[in-house]
């Protein structure tokens, strides 16, 4: 366990069931019930709120972040994700996190999957999710497919976005190479008033 290190105003830590409902809102409904969820206790430590019974792990919104952000990914990505969280909690910069994880992957300390793996996320302003009703009001989805070491040549996918909604390959050749798919369309009910 570790305490989130972001230096912003702390939001209230939501009750476990509300964190779980918000966290799984990033994935298709049929996958939500069995997804494991990591969220926050009253000391803002990341803890397991629900064990997984399917292939996905979801991260609840961080109360130390001034936006709403939840993400779900295949459990085989957890060693990579967990190490990133540990290093950031230690105060490492993005460049340091990248360098250390690359070294540890190359040394076999962090296993990376040898097949494509999905990640789903929703990002919004702090008002983008209504915890009282458990409703996404206005958030931007992002869909990612991790394809370790993939390149433009191995996939035929451009390494830059060519148009809105077109997939593109980020970090080609890296252990964390991934296909980005952003629709540019926000999801949700738009306003809290419309939801009431």
Which terms summarize this structure?
disordered N terminus, eight-stranded mixed sheet, alpha+beta, globular, 196 residues, 23% helix, two-stranded antiparallel sheet
What order do the helices and strands come in, and which of them pair?
Blueprint: H1 16-23, H2 29-32, E1 36-40, E2 46-50, E3 56-59, E4 67-74, H3 78-89, H4 94-106, E5 117-125, E6 129-130, E7 135-136, E8 140-146, H5 152-155, E9 168-170, E10 178-181, H6 192-195
Parallel strand pairs: 1-3
Antiparallel strand pairs: 1-2, 3-4, 4-5, 5-8, 6-7, 8-10, 9-10
Structure description:
The chain has six helices and ten strands; from the N terminus they run ααββββααββββαββα. With 196 residues, it is an alpha+beta fold. It has one domain. The chain has an eight-stranded mixed β-sheet, with helices on one face. Strands 6-7 form a two-stranded antiparallel sheet. A hairpin with a 7-residue loop joins strand 9 and strand 10. It is globular, with a radius of gyration of 17 Å. The protein starts with 15 loop residues before the first helix and ends with a helix. Mean pLDDT is 89; it is low at 1-9.
Structural class, by secondary structure, is alpha+beta
Helical content stands at: 10-25%
For the largest beta-sheet, the strand count, sense and barrel status come to: 8 strands, mixed
Shape: globular
Report the portion of residues in β strands: 25-35%
Mean pLDDT over the full residue set: 89
How many strands appear in the DSSP assignment? 10
Helix and strand run:
HHEEEEHHEEEEHEEH
Number of helices: 6
Q: Measured on Cα atoms, how large is the radius of gyration?
A: 17 Å
End-to-end C-alpha gap = 37 Å
Count of individual domains: 1
* Low-confidence regions: 1-9
In what order do the strands lie side by side in the largest sheet?
A: 2-1-3-4-5-8-10-9
